[in-house]
Amino acid sequence: MDSNLLGGILLQQLFNELVKCDVKPFLSKHGFAKKGLNFYKTTESLIYMIHFQKSSGNSSDNVMFYVNCGIYAAELAQIQSREILTTPKEVDCHFRARIGEITESAPDRYSITPDTNMDDLRKTLLSELEEVNHFYEKMNSARDIVHYYTSGPFLHLGEESFHLLLQSNDVAAARQYLKALQEKYGTENRWTIFEKKYQAIFHKYGLEFHTG
Fold first, then answer.
1. Gap between the terminal Cα atoms of the chain
2. Which pLDDT tens digit goes with each residue over 131-151?
3. Nearest CA to 195 among 164, 169, 149, 158?
4. Any long-range contacts for 36-42 (C-beta under 8 Å, 24+ apart)?
C-alpha cells in the first residue's frame, strides 16, 4: 500500500477514535447522543447540537476538522413557518457558531498530523467542549437565543427576534433592538432592505415604526 495512503488512513483512524472513545463518552455525560458526526441534546424547548466537520483540505499527513455548535428552537421555526425538526442539521439551527466563537482558546480548526500529541489534543478539545456545555446551560429558551443576537446587535435572526419580542408584548426591547441596529448598520446600503422588513413586522402588530 502507498505510504501516503497508509498515513492518511492512520490519521483518519486517530480522528475516528478521538470522536468515539473520548468525545462521545464525554458528551454522553452531559446528555448528548451521537448520530454520525453530530451530537444532540434535546430539552423541552431547545435542541443543542455539536457537529464535527471534516475539512475538505485533508491530506495524507494532515487531518483537519472543525467543531460547529448550534441550538435549534421549535418556537423560532414556527415563526419562520418551517417544519419542526427533531434532528436538525447545523445549518437549520437558530444559534450557530464555531467553537472558537464560544471559547476564545479554541483554534479555528483542529489538526491531526504525524507529530500531534494526541493526549494534548484530547485534553484541549474536551476542555473546550466543557466550555461549550457551560455556554449551552445559559441558553434555555428561544428568548435566550434572541437575547444573544439582539444584544450584539446582530442582523442574524432579526425578523424572528422582532416577532418573538412583539408577540410577548415586549415593545420596549424591540424598539431598543431596532435603535441599536440603526446605529450599527444604518449607514450601509443594505439597511433600507432590512428596514422595510422590520417596518412590516411592527405594522403587523399595530405599532408605529420608530425607536423612541
1. 71
2. 999 999 999 999 999 999 999
3. 158
4. 38/87, 38/89, 38/90, 40/87, 41/136, 42/86
